[in-house]
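Inputs:
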Amino acid sequence: MRRHLRALRGPASALGGLLLTGAALAAPDAALQERLAPCIGCHGAGTSATEGVPSLGGQPADYVVTQLFQFREKQREAPPMNEVAAGFSDDDLRAYADAVATLPPPAWSGPPADAALATRAQALVAKHQCNSCHGPDLAGRDAIPRIRAQREEYLAKALAAYKSNARPGYDPAMNEVAQGLSEADIRDLAAYVSHL
Amino acid sequence: MTPISQPILTRSLTAALAGLSLSLMGSGPVAAQETPATAAPPPSVQVDRGSALYGRPEGGAAAKLAPVAGPPLATAAAKLPLDKLKVPEGFKIEVYASGLANAREMTQAPDGTLYVGTRTVGKVYAVLPKADGDGKREVKTIATGLHRPNGVAYHDGALYVAELSKIWRYDDIANHSDGAAKPTLVYDDLPKDEAHGWKFIAIGPDNKLYVPVGAPGNIVMPPDTHAQIRRMDLDGKNAEVIARGVRNTVGFDWNPKTKQLWFTDNGRDWVSEDIPNDELNVLTEPGKQHFGYPFCHQGTFTDPEYGWGHACSEFTAPAALLGPHTASLGLRFYTGTQFPEAYRDAMFVARHGSWNRTTKLGGDVVVAKPGSDGKTAAVEPFLTGFLQDNKYVGRPVDVLVAKDGSLLVSDDYNGAIYRVSYGR
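Outputs:
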């Protein structure tokens, strides 16, 4: 319900809902593309090809809005996103989150993780119950991010920062979970999840 | 209330509260019979003990349960679920203030200014008392960038704010609502665990500051520094532990007659859908009582792992049970005169609502009316409707008796404060 109402607030969705001609449908798409252009510039159109910059495709809007909020409030430090979000209104946060959520999810196209790594990582996923919040296929939901096929070095950095509390989560769940991860665990999890 | 939701609400509440009132201490071991203490210990899933998920059994249904924090942006005033909220006959409920994302603990100054802490957005708000022509009150943000500033307590012109591991005092707060106030550090001899690290604070009738330290995980053997309530002088000196075996209290107040401290305590997760209950406790011998965690839960059963070698009789039993996994948080005695006589010196308790339960429970404010023995006699629903079709439309966190005798209720899911009043 919240998502539905939020989507309706965006001018693009409102137009799309009211006008059904082909010409009218092109207009919201153009507005959406215009809004997404600066995001895609660094993050790619769903899949990031840049080291250290996460893929945004398939992220739930509730997760994106929470991260943008944390950037704006400087609760999460990740230059240049803090400066980017500094001037955003609450409505801007919602509009960008809704736009980002339309990007197609990343998919790993190379060979899968090797069998020994997969076995170790699957045991870690079970032990730390990653799927309890991130879902059975680690695709995220609501305010929980999609992590499958995310960039490997980004996943490793995020886990290390949760472990050290350098990145306090919006909710402390990840800080709590990461306390029990060794450096080798983090390497294995990042290598495996990024290759799903 | 729509005709459709009425019977659903009534049925679930009746069931929930029947369990509550029947399971009061002193009325027999009904809770133990209804919810047998034979729950199998969870299989030894290797999960971090500091994790909220520690102790979770393997299995499909349990794997669907996880805590989820509310959104960082407040719900617009026009979209608040006011039409879903129900209060007893003769009472009315209205929106007191909106736009306070993640509103948590509340405290009020004599001039009526309401101060509100937050858990996830790092802010402390001030709600100015005077409403404009449309009934809207101005909300100022008096501090930002704090780490889980859940706790607020006003005292003698100053505002005490509890972060995760630091307590601050903002002097002359009435003249420093512009966000530029420089606080004084009061106390920081506190652990930095994120688990149960956010704090409810209050200043007692003894003019001391009361600060809880939660257990650093769901079910762990807590270090000496955790699972307790401390009290200290207002300058942070002479801290002492006054209660042990307290897993995580996020609400307490003093009985205006006996001056004894009453507090809610959140029970552990993952034993069962139905046990243990959250507890309503009373501290009668400061410094001498242990309330059970992690050995005994709800006064009636020993922990599947830590209870071996112990009996619940070693620990102080709760005065009342508040329902399994209900997340019973803010607690205040009703000290006003606006409500009917039956509410005098009764406790209001905000139940944030369960996550560790397939059929959610809580998402309401209950009233615990004390009996003649000084113990709670009955727990009844008061403000209901936050839980609709097993989904939350809001989540109450704290209750506060306002200067005019009405009851204010904070909702961190919507970032709003409601006001419940009686009569015209």
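Remarks. The mean pLDDT of chain A is 85. The two ends of chain A are 31 Å apart (CA to CA).
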